[in-house]
Amino acid sequence: xxxxxxxxxxxxxxxxxxxxxxxxxxxxxxxxxxxxxxxxxxxxxxxxxxxxxxxxxxxxxxxxxxxxxxxxxxxxxxxxxxxxxxxxxxxxxxxxxxxxxxxxxxxxxxxxxxxxxxxxxxxxxxxxxxxxxxxxxxxxxxxxxxxxxxxxxxxxxxxxxxxxxx
Length: 166
Description:
The chain is α+β, with helices and mostly antiparallel strands. It has one domain. Helices cover about 45% and strands about 30% of the residues. It has helices at about 1-40, 115-140, 145-150; strands at about 45-55, 60-70, 75-80, 85, 95-105, 105-110, 155, 160-165. The strands form two sheets. Strands 1, 2, 3, 4, 5 and 6 form a six-stranded antiparallel beta sheet that branches. The protein has a two-stranded antiparallel ribbon with strand order 7-8. Helix 1 (about 1-40) runs antiparallel to helix 2 (about 115-140). The longest helix is centred in the N-terminal third of the chain and has 40 residues, at about 1-40.
């Protein structure tokens, strides 16, 4: 009886992990669609790096995020903090000119127009989804995960508990 429940639990976990991966893939597709619409409808301008923010994590590793400014097509100045940074080494320096993409209706959503600034979040999410899917499929289909359960025998202790014995 216990072996059946253990196998059921492993398979249920596998199914849940696969569902997480599928939800991640749907979210990636939505984000990719957003980026495609953003790039097609965005205005392009030149901006300037105003500040580089350095943060040190618990492992004493540095990450850098950037504050940049740009002037939109109506002549208004905007100052934006990038939500994507870099690790170990700052990619931009204060005063450096950068290419900026923004929607005229939402200039606060502006982005620095580089591959890593535009696609890092998408790539990391896709890799997470792939890892979840592979792990879930392994748990669901790999027979060796269940072999040790088949070889074990159930025994009842004096207190009435059921245990597995190898």
